[in-house]
Specification:
The chain is mainly α and about 500 residues long. It has 11 helices and 8 strands.
Length: about 500
């Protein structure tokens, strides 16, 4: 199974147990459905009323009761009376579907209501390839270096800490895997239409072994690259807190952590933060959107199949190089060595040069065997690391597509009610407008995925071929050195 291709689950066990005062009490995040109870920092963070504005999608559409599902002070308005107001857009029977759990259904049906600060707005713009996330005006990168084993409780507990150095601050911070895990959980919950890259898997045994630490660091480096490259994720408050909060300031870390866990802009309210192009020519054709999403769905299915196949092939090829190829080349080398030893029984002076040349050839083949064994970590392993990361993205998209498809279904249902004279056009247009917001965000995320995919696979294939060329140049050099030994025989 692909190590990254998994739904998010809170970590359990291993070196990252939640057994210390880093998470000293039950938080909002521990209570499903309790998110968004308060957000005391509005005035300070947003500069008072000037720094925020209120957005509501609550329509006059009679949607039926949903016990306890509405913010206090915002009950459903009464039905508008008359035949055209009597129809409702039905709710999904499956209340555990991604469309429902993500808040997409509540948003499309006009139930979301909340404050959106200017800093929380996520803009979708029209680019040359269609809808795109607005670029981060202050792009940055972050390196992950020097994983070190540290201890606490007077050496009773050990863990690995990673040094992070963001380019936009230049200040290093240290984070444990559980900090990455916490951040991933927050982002996966907050952004239902964004593919949050999966983290490399935890490991309960052998977690302090050098090979595992090195492999995890490379996986986290890819993860960090994709986080910094995403225009929305890179600017998210929780991510910035993760990157910039000093490692030694426990109080500041907990304050930022609690703030992220009390974020009200999750679920249905998240969609309120999305700003889409407006005006003539900015609208989306529903059939065209459906066609594009269906095409992307087919693409991801095929890419997932081919990524699995390539990963299996590369893994098998690497195994052969490390064991089989090395063994076979060294068997050839050993055979040449036996031949030279046999020739040494002839004490004639004119045989000495030949004996030495054959012995050198034996050493060359032995060295070539070692080159084969060392090579996968230079070329095949990086390819498999990239495939693992993308298998995580590909595992995310079915849920993202499900949210968009659910919104389209509600639009079709509302149009049917209008045609039958059971719903006012204005109410149906509200549903379509909110569906457009989800569609714009979905298409922007699809475009970002393709853009980053082309960048990554171009770079990785270039690296792979460069390493292959260097490898065969080394092999050629060994053979040429052996060949020249016969010139003086």
């Amino acid at each position: 199974p692909a190590p990254y291709g998994r739904p998010y689950q809170p970590s359990q066990g291993s070196d990252d147990d939640w057994d210390d005062d880093w998470d000293d009490s039950s938080t909002v995040a521990d209570e499903p459905g309790a998110l968004g109870s308060s957000y005391p920092d509005y005035e300070a963070a947003g500069g008072g009323a000037a720094g925020r504005y209120r957005l509501s999608t609550r329509s006059e559409l009679s949607l039926g009761s949903r016990g306890g599902g509405h913010p206090a002070g915002h009950p459903h308005p009464p039905g508008g009376g008359g035949a055209k107001s009597s129809a409702t857009v039905s709710r999904n029977l499956n209340r555990f579907s991604t469309f429902v759990k993500s808040g997409g259904e509540a948003f499309v049906l006009g139930e979301a209501s909340g404050f959106v600060k200017d800093g929380d707005k996520l803009c979708v713009v029209l680019g040359p390839r269609g809808p795109e996330w607005q670029e981060n005006p202050y792009p940055f990168q972050c390196s992950i270096e020097d994983p070190t084993k540290q201890t606490k409780f007077k050496g009773m507990k050990s863990y690995i800490a990673y040094k992070l150095v963001p380019s936009h601050t230049g200040q290093q911070v240290h984070r444990r895997y559980k900090h990455f895990d916490w951040l991933y959980g927050r982002l996966a919950e907050k952004f239902p239409v964004i593919s949050v890259p999966h983290l490399p898997e935890k490991q309960a045994t052998g977690r302090f072994e050098e090979d595992f630490i090195s492999k995890r660091r490379k996986g986290l480096a890819w993860w960090m690259d994709h986080m910094c490259s995403h225009p929305v994720l890179a600017q998210c408050d929780a991510f910035q807190h993760f990157l910039t909060c000093p490692s030694t300031d426990e109080k500041a870390w907990k304050q930022g952590k609690r703030k992220a866990e009390k974020d009200e802009m999750v679920g249905a309210n998240f969609f309120l933060t999305i700003s889409v192009p407006a005006g003539p020519g900015a609208g989306l054709d529903l059939q065209e959107v459906e066609s594009q999403v269906d095409g992307f769905k087919a693409f991801t299915k095929k890419m997932d199949e081919s990524a699995l196949q390539l990963n299996h092939t590369a893994n098998e090829f690497a195994r052969k190089q490390v064991t089989g190829f090395k063994k076979e080349y060294q068997k050839v080398g050993h055979s040449f060595k036996c031949l030279s030893q046999a020739f040494e029984l002839d004490q004639q002076a004119f045989s000495a040069g030949l004996n030495q040349a054959i012995a050198f050839t034996a050493e060359a083949y032995d060295a070539i065997g070692d080159l084969f064994a060392d090579q996968p970590r230079q070329d095949l392993d990086p390819v498999m690391d990239l495939l693992a990361l993308y298998q995580g993205h590909l595992a995310n998209f079915p849920d993202i597509i499900h949210v968009q498809k659910g919104a389209l279904t509600k639009v079709k249902e509302s149009k049917r009610h209008v045609e039958e004279g059971k719903m006012e056009l204005q109410k149906a247009e509200g549903i379509q407008e909110r569906c457009n917001i989800i569609s714009f965000a979905t298409l922007a995320e699809i475009n970002h995925f393709h853009k980053i995919r082309v960048r990554d696979f171009k770079s990785q294939m270039q690296h792979f071929l460069q390493q292959q060329i260097l490898f065969f140049q080394k092999v050629t050099q060994k053979l040429e050195e052996a060949l020249h030994k016969y010139d003086s025989v």
